[in-house]
Amino acid sequence: MSAYRTVVVGTDGSESSLRAVRRAGALAGACGARLFIVCAYLPPRADDRQLRPAQGESGEDTHQVVGSAPAEDTVRGAAEEAVAAGAGEVEQVAVVGSPVETLLDVVTRAQADLLIVGNRGLSSLKGRLMGSVPADVTRRSSVDVLVVHTTG
């Protein structure tokens, strides 16, 4: 098996997602792979805050990024974390859309051979009933998926 050449990782700026980013950075660095750090965000509305904290079903804080400026800040900070973990070539991608669709689209466009996500959402009741980002991308991805243990 050859080393991965292009790796995609998703982040929402939460500590849980940054754990996955650091793991992706270390793996990309070890493989000499190009790393795409992706943040999906919602377009802002007048009554929205730029980053809305919410309480997840399992009790952990989650974030839904709203607006392009917070999304750009999120990928910029994540890129710094990835480089500190060992990544060499890092691309920052902030896109309006749902996390699952955005990640799968970037995987296709970047011709990635590995997608990395954190496990947050897999153990929650809501995640089991309605689906979660890690479960959905694992089921739908055409490339290898690494689910990093980032919670609990």
Would you mind describing this structure in some detail?
With 152 residues, the protein is of the alpha/beta class. It is 40% helix and 26% strand. The protein is built from five helices and seven strands. Helix 1 packs across helix 2 and helix 3 packs parallel to helix 5. The longest helix is centred in the middle third of the chain and has 18 residues. About 18% of the residues have low confidence.
**Oligomeric status:** single chain
State the CATH architecture.
Answer: 3-Layer(aba) Sandwich
CATH topology: Rossmann fold
User: What is the CATH top level name?
Assistant: Alpha Beta
Tell the overall outline: globular
**Reading side by side through the largest sheet, how are the strands ordered?**
5-2-1-6-7
CATH superfamily: HUPs
Name the poorly predicted regions. Answer: 46-62, 122-131
Mean pLDDT: 83
- Strand and helix order: EHEEEHEHEHHE
Total number of beta strands: 7
Total domain modules: 1
Q: What's the topology here?
A:
Layout: E1 6-10, H1 15-31, E2 34-41, E3 51-55, E4 61-65, H2 68-85, E5 90-96, H3 99-110, E6 114-118, H4 125-130, H5 133-140, E7 144-148
Parallel strand pairs: 1-2, 1-6, 2-5, 6-7
Antiparallel strand pairs: 3-4
Helix pairs in contact: 1-2, 3-5
Key descriptive features of the protein:
5 helices; two-stranded antiparallel sheet; Rossmann fold; 152 residues; Nucleotide-binding universal stress protein, UspA family; 5-stranded parallel β-sheet; 40% helix; alpha/beta; 7 strands; single chain
